[in-house]
Design a protein that fits this description.
This protein has 239 residues and is of the alpha+beta class. It contains 7 helices and 9 strands.
Length: 239
Amino acid sequence: MSRLRRIARQAAARAAPDPVTGPDGRERCDLCAEPLPPDHRHLLDLSAAAVRCACRACALLFDRRAAGGASYRLVPRERRRLDGCAIDEVLWAGLGIPVDLAFFVRSGATGEVTAGYPSPLGTLRATVHPDSWRELTRAHPALPELADDVEALLVHRAGGAREHWLVPLDDCYRLVAVVRAHWKGLGGGPEVWRHVDTFFSELAGELPGEPAGEPSTGPATGPDPGPRPTPQEASWVSP
């Protein structure tokens, strides 16, 4: 936990902005104030490093990268589970990630890769060394195709899990909100890990051909890790 506290002091906590609502209580587009349906799209505000809600018309306006210029990028919707992603213990340790739940985003402006850690303080961030990222991309051929700024490699290793996903950036923000809402004490408590597991089960349920709310079948690469620890046994900080 001391490493996590040092990171917390070095990085400001980032929370998703409160939704814009009209007099009728309906959530509205952050750009034009049009009422939004529940399944609306999101834009990444590059200047503020924040996700904004967008109506259909505004989402279409920024559907191409050039349309948003240096201000906005449309967040994609596709999710892909990387079942063949071979991130072993040595590779993970080489990344210097002090926790077992993190997401990685590449900047389109600088090419730097940043690791984000969901925490009770919000999103904590650290820059990943280029050599470490190149080694990581060799673990799966899809990683070099990661969309800059708006797509993330999401990795869940806590409690024996081995989940590797390419997800829209707003999924990572949702996960941060889950951790912040349910974290208790120093280690998070059993409730937060139940909600984290539910989050990943729902990701799997949203894949084509799979029932909602149920994890996809098929083990992750490598040997069967055996019975999974209870949430009380799961460690937030890597040993």
